Amino acid sequence: xxxxxxxxxxxxxxxxxxxxxFALVELSFLGGTFILLPFxxxxxxxxxxxxxxxxxxxxWAVFVFGGALAFAGLYRWAxxxxxxxxxxxxxxxxxVGMTGLVTVEISPDDTDRRGRxxxxxxxxxxxxxxxxxxxxxxxxxxxxxxGTRVVVEPIAxxxxxxxxxxxxxxxxxxxxxxxx
Length: 180
Hints:
The chain has three helices and five strands, in the order αααβββββ. The chain is of the alpha+beta class and 180 residues long. Helix 1 packs antiparallel against helix 2 and helix 2 (37-51) runs antiparallel to helix 3 (56-81).
């Protein structure tokens, strides 16, 4: 029998303390990473065994191996079911590669943050990595996202419709039939 110099009647309270401390550390400091939570659960199970006077060796085995097994199972489940990456084309990154129309001139330094581009039915704040300003009315392609603003580059040559295919292009003025 394992003799650590601790009274057998104290082990249930030790395991309960370990379970509560591990759970509090997990929730307070580790931010829900679920590193200590499986061991908090296995410490609780070891406390239940200690209340029924199961041998201390079995309690330790349940704590160590049960926590490791629960951690491995939780890790496999999380790898299979949880994904941190957004699929391509979700969020603002979907705009990269799209073509748009400059609606408000984009100056090279853009200290006043006024540059705007019409993309995918929305008006976005824009930056340009060019030496010259991009005047309103020219077509541009989104090169990257920088924070909440799109970084655009001018397009040389002919280009198709602005924005994605479909009804979300730029607003069109109706053609007046009575105009000369």
